[in-house]
Amino acid sequence: MMELTLTDDGQFLRVDSATELELEQLNISLTRRIENHRFNPLVKKGIWDGYISYFKDNQWIPAGLWQEVTKICKQYNYDIKINGVTRLFDKDISAQSFEEWALEFFEDHPDGIVPRDYQIEAAFNILKFRRSLSELATSAGKTLISFLTVAYMLEKQKASKILFIVPNVSLVVQATEDFAEYNHENRVKMMVQQIYSGQKIKPNRNIVIGTYQSLVKKPKEFFDDFDAVIVDETHKAKSNSIKTILQKCRMAKYKYGLSGTIPKDNTLDRLTLMSQTGPLITEIKASFLQKEGHIAGCNVKVIEMDYAPQASKQAFMELATNRYDSKDVFSLEQNYVINSPGRINFVTKVIAKIPNNSLVLFHRIEHGKKLYEMLRQRSDKKVYYVDGGTNTDIREEYKAKMEAGDDVVIIASYGTFSTGISIKKIHNIFFTESFKSEVIIRQSIGRGLRQHESKESVNIIDFVDDLRWDEWQNYLYRHATARKKIYKQEKFKFEVKKVKFDGDI
After folding, report:
1. What's the average model confidence in pLDDT over 258-276?
2. Cis omega (within 30 of 0) on the bond before 309?
3. For a tag on the chain, would you pick the N or C end, based on fewer CB atoms within 10 A?
4. Banded model confidence at residue 61, pLDDT cuts 50, 70, 90
5. Is residue 49 very low, low, confident or very high in pLDDT (cuts 50, 70, 90)?
6. Which domain does 32 fall in, by range?
């Protein structure tokens, strides 16, 4: 029998007994190769093979992978015993008692807020499993679920200090305001410390809400008093900063990750997230929320631009196939299309024609600025531009303008506005550059799914560059195929419109 033991600090599973075959299988099953490894400089130089293992020295496994280890053993018919694993569960909480507490807490709330059944269940699961991941689609009420969790810990479990980690300053402010709104009549004593650039540390605060970037700079001693740590938008926790923060939270009994999109099973990203927090215990999909009438509908229009004349397509194909490195070909394609004045003209013409508020998403700054300048010239819409260098206050100002106005267009980079923003009055979202990341796709669509009295559904307009020639498929078109799969999976209404695009290419 394979025998493991949860270490006293709850950080690792220590392998105490296992056969050589069992050790080998654990090592294989807990090792993944990084995505696009062949482009990594260290791999190219032969210094590294691109593999990352979560089984160190044939003895140590992150505690968050306890369920994954159990699954591996079940798959290969290995008997397994994990000593101390019960410390990763809270045995003193019941679903019924928690539901009664949650409903009573919000009884007579002045704003009429009542937690939904699935929100109560999600919060209970988080409390039940002390290490876990929860996938909560946009508008599922992630902040309310987090509040229920935090409030119960403070009131019933007498937690002394809780850390809530968010990706940006806007979410620090938003979470603070939401917590204050939910905590009517100050039922639970919540003293919030905001942590971001320029904020001074205040003593005797039982809730700390901060950004990844600011918290990673804090010394180890800063984290010793936290009973629990919650990581919002945990799909971004692949970065070393999050890993560092969670490792510093050595004394925290509870470690939770929340996200609108958890990476696919059997991927390195998913394994990384589970290693830092725990197994996926709750999944609330957009399709469920739409079915229940909790979020807006979604209509997708794919505009496939078939480049002509054919001679130009053939010339580009020949140029591309002469490139050895596929990464170079992808960059070549990107440059080829986004530097086309004809394409800029076509895309902005479509944006200008569609009424109501629009979010226009781009990858490359040079492309975003071209879209911005062209749209300002040809449209009477109120147009604003945002990228990573845009001040937080200005971003908030633009969000407020869209929330209050009509025919407002925000042209923003995927990195700034595809996740972590809340604007209910978005009617249209434009994908102006190609990508295939499931996380980005779902998070970007999620920006428009919040309900507002001015809309029944959000429109997604997806621009696709079709440079196919005979059997050769360009990368930008392949990425579009990946996006279409997700539209189908989510059962969004979508149509494909093909246009002959002669532009100037």
Report:
1. 86
2. yes
3. N
4. very high
5. very high
6. 2-88
User: Average pLDDT over the chain, rounded to whole?
Assistant: 89
User: Which token pair is 175?
Assistant: 């979470």
- From 104, 195, 110, 205, select the one nearest 152 (Cα to Cα): 104
336-340: long-range contacts (C-beta < 8 A, 24 or more apart)? 336/467, 336/505, 337/465, 337/467, 337/476, 338/364, 338/366, 338/367, 338/370, 338/433, 340/503, 340/504, 340/505
CATH value at residue 69: 3.30.780.20
What one-letter code names the amino acid at 338? I
Question: Whose structure tokens read 């004394």?
Answer: 251
CA 289 → CA 193, 251, 372, 452, distances in Å? 33, 36, 34, 15
What does the block give as tokens for 448? 């428009």
Q: What is the CATH number of the domain that holds 311?
A: 3.40.50.300
Do 325 and 487 form a contact (C-beta atoms < 8 A)?
no
Residue 177's Cβ-side half-sphere holds a number of Cα atoms within 13 Å equal to: 6
pTM: 0.81
> 297: which 2 tokens?
């509908």
Rounded Cα–Cα distance for residues 468 and 479 (Å):
13
Q: What DSSP string runs through 349-365?
A: HHHHHS-S-EEEEES-H
The number of angstroms, rounded, from the C-alpha of 385 to the middle of its chain's C-alpha atoms is 23
